[in-house]
Amino acid sequence: MSGRSVAGQVFAMNVVIVLLLVVAAAVALVLQVRHDSTVEARNRSVAVAATFANSPGIREALRSPDPTAVLQPRAEAARRATGVDFIVVMNTDGIRYTHPRPDRIGKEFVGNIAPALAGETVTEEIEGTIGPLVQAVVPVEAPDGTVVGLVSAGITTENVGGAAERQLPLVLIVAGVGLALATAGTALVSRRLLRQTHGLGPHEMTRMYEHHDAVLHSVREGVLIVGGEGGLLLANDEAQRLLDLPDDAEGRHVLGLGLPDDTAELLASGRVATDEVHLVKDRLLAVNQRPTDVRGGPAGSVATLRDSTELRALSGRAETARERLDILYAAGVGIGTSLDVARTAEELAELAVPRFADYVSVDLFDTVLAGGQPGGVTPLRRAALSGIREEVPLYPVGRQIRFVTSSPQGRSLQTGRPVLAPRLREARGWQAQDLERSAQVVEYGVHSLITVPLRAGTLVLGVVSFWRSEKPEPFDEDEMTLAEELVARAAVSIDNARRYTREHSMAVTLQRSLLPRRMPEQNALDIAYRYLPAQAGVGGDWFDVLPLSGARVALVVGDIVGHGLHAAATMGRLRTAVHNFTALDLPPDELLGLLDELVGRIDQDEAADDGTAPVTGATCLYAIYDPVSSTCVIARAGHPPPALIGPDGAVEFPEVPAGPPLGLGGLPFETTELRLAEGSRLVLYTDGLVEDREHDIDVGLEQLRQALETAGESPEETCRTVLDARLPERPGDDIALLVARTRALGPDRVAEWQVPNDPAAVGEVRAQVTRRLAEWGLDELTFTTELILSELVTNAIRYGGETVHVRVLRDRSLICEVFDSSSTSPHLRYAAMTDEGGRGLFLVAQLAERWGTRYTPGGKVIWAEQPVS
């Protein structure tokens, strides 16, 4: 064995080779140990964390009231079984549920969890309290992919590397024995096997295979692994059952397995799919597919299959129930938004199209539309029609209809029950209603019908028809039940609208009966007016034009606080009171004072009856226009100010003291006297014209001014312009508008004389009046006028004081007025046979059409009117 021999040389060479190999192996092993320790720690921590995260019951435990109680024992058992240093389960906020040291449970996890919350696996090397370690964080995902928790496993590199270092003596011993070539070959094979198994030992590989096999055969989802070329590499038992694959399916191309085209193309494409539903024979399969080469793996894809047939059926029934509940909820909030019968019927038709039917028609009795009780013999009228298209050949809105008893609508009206006509082409009773139109409807594509009576208690208000054309399936019994409930909800709103219409009509009728039906005849003013009741309820607005003595005219506009029949009745009482007080020829301030006392008494009487006072006051504006002097005296009680349009079109709001509203009492009212040029327009109105919820009265007055500036010259044009500019779509309050254009009684129609305090002057008065009547062409009134003035002037000279004044006016009638300074009013009486006087006023009353007394600040005026033919 000397070195010189061939054998020695070979031996020496072998020794050198072995020594070199041993040294190289030792050095390489030391370096490899350090690297492999880290790699093995990473792989083991990831495997343990992923296995624990995907273990059965982990998601349920995270949702339990006390996750620590469930997970801590399992985590510790898994930690001891896998040889890792810790297994930590935490929530998505990083709060620990488990830890080998119980005192650290509930505290925040140390490490980076952000990628794991996004569904990725995180591994990192850190310096922990137990030394250098490698830890992995794996997400716990719900079936829908949502991260519901995190699992972390960690192991120190010392524990991993220790096992590797214990193998070093064995390698040295084997090398020392001289099995250099065998050791080298074993080392090479081991290193190659190590790379292929990723550091797993035989036990770990056996356990992984057992778990893999158990999962594939026991999981309730089908699993398919398809290679990059489209060949089927693996199909578990559930996939074999769901797809009904042949026994030799593995290894064949997926396009040749007899699967439906869309399913086979999806598996062969390898594209990403999430819960795609595919019909395979009689099953609905939800397919999820992901590629396998995302992290450097082999080309191909993994697909999971879930049978959703029963789930889809249950989901469909639940969706149908949800849609029906949604329709009924929408009916509760969308039908009956107004108290209008026709609009409520339209809301029902619009709601049901197209969610329930393609066309909906609502037919109501004529009396219901007018607010009355429905009658069986009265015809129906189409109140609403809604559909997906407008050219459907059904009866149009407004058409009066009499349904034959054989039609579904007729049977519904007669029995009070819904009727289902699933196939209109075969419904002879429906076709008998109108043979020509029925054929047109069927030809148009309408094929199914449900009719439901509109019932409110025992009353049948009409019938609702639901028509179907687009959906090929006919209506069924369940849909008829839904239609019946939908109509029942709408019937309550329609009946409420009917009752409101009836009461509103009664109130409006009462209110209009209390308002002036025509304007009185007079020459002082050109009058135009408008009165619009509120849509929401009747109010107490009113106006009046009242002729007074001396060719004067009184204008009055008022507003009762509140709405309803009580306000309308109170308005009638006040209007009557104004008529009575006007007969006394009182000035505006005194008349408002009397109205104030009356409203106060009304409030007291109402409060005494039931403890409440529904009338809390009223507003009023009273104006007297005198065409002789062209003056207007105005007083108002809490009412909006009048507007005045001059002959040149300029608009102003005269300063008229407001005064308190009627009924408050305690304060006097003030008057304002305006001198109006002929052709001026006085505009009186109620607050409904200038006030609303969105703007205050100042804005309303300015808008009224702008409208008046553009108004025409006539009162009618003024009314029209103002309402076009200021009238809301649905007035919330009554609106009364009165426009009066002034006229003047010229000097040629007025005659005046001062009468001396001497009975002899009566004759001169008669002579002057006779001449004036001759000028006016009223000779036929000379005799009666002389008698009237003789009596009135004689009484004034005898009883009325020192100042006597006579005025004769030619207007629509001949007016004789005698002014004196006395405030004592004469009274008409029957004179006895023995009386020397007392017959003069009786004679005046017989000759004149009207006569009376009015008071002035300086005395009184006795007047008499005679008709002019």
Automatic annotation (TrEMBL):
Transmembrane segments: 6-31, 168-189
Location of the GAF domain: 336-504
Pfam family, one: HATPase_c_2
Keywords: ATP-binding, Cell membrane, Hydrolase, Kinase, Membrane, Nucleotide-binding, Phosphoprotein, Transferase, Transmembrane, Transmembrane helix, Two-component regulatory system
Membrane topology: Multi-pass membrane protein
Residues annotated as domain PPM-type phosphatase: 522-742
SMART domains to which the protein is assigned, alphabetical: GAF (SM00065), PAS (SM00091), PP2C_SIG (SM00331)
Start and end residues of each PAS domain: 210-275
Subcellular location: Cell membrane
Protein name as annotated: SpoIIE family protein phosphatase/ATP-binding protein
Source species of the chain: Streptomyces thinghirensis
